[in-house]
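Input record (one chain):
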Amino acid sequence: MNQSIKIKKDWTKAEVISLMTKPFNDLIFLAQQVHRENFDPNIVQLSTLMNIKTGGCPEDCAYCPQSAHYDAGVNAEKLLEVDAVLEQAKAAKESGATRFCMGAAWRQPKQRDLEKVITMVEAVKKTGMETCVTLGMLEKGQAQELKSAGLDYYNHNLDSSPEFYSKIISTRDYQERLDTIEHVRAAGINVCCGGIIGMGEEENDRAGLLMSLANMDVQPESVPINMLVQVEGTPLDKTEDVDPIDFVRVIASARIMMPASYVRLSAGRSEMTQEMQALCLLAGANSIFYGEKLLTTNNPQLVEDQKLFERLGVQSSQH
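The corresponding structure, as predicted from the sequence alone:
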């Protein structure tokens, strides 16, 4: 990676919209140039995500089937035992994943639950994999405890722009999300932070999301860009599908604005054609979530990913 990379952190909304709306070929060309300056263009990092605690979340995020506010067919379950998690982590490593992410549907972890998650982090670390958790909001002390356990990454997405956010979530405000990210950063944990495209937001909101991410004091090391997976029973079911080219534009813009970050294709890949995914990789995405499940929604199975990688001459990273 180019160590002398210059990172811009004073993006304006007008600049981001101008970037996102460039002629498609020019945008992709620029994104691919930035990508090649900082990464091997034919290497993709593999992460896998396991739900360690499903459903029953008190938040009302309009896209989420795990919210207790909606009847989306997801039953609330208890936090899994460490042995079950470790078994999945080992299987993920054998399949080529270098990072194991654990997700729990909480507003914020209780101390007794956090202690169990810390045991999981310590166990997964011993396999040699990188560890990531997403547990909702964190206090400063909780972030420090996770750091002491050896946690590598904490995921906490901004979801959308500050303006659009209040239209999809009422139980937590945007600043609370930023506060959690600050606590994670202060503890010395890498930040995984992105958003969701296709929730009915405007181009202006997509620009606002990218601007919020890119203008952080330290840009997130990992930026997951999710495409909304519509789930029956949630308020965003039947939302108009996002235009595939518009989605690729967001990926390309994220790559240009956050040149040193891993840009990850996350939820929604099972709704994407292989050609759309190939365009996303061309636009600078260099990380994916793979496996049979991504939280509660379907995700392409590993064999499909391997077929795509083979067609493209892409390899998974072994770091």
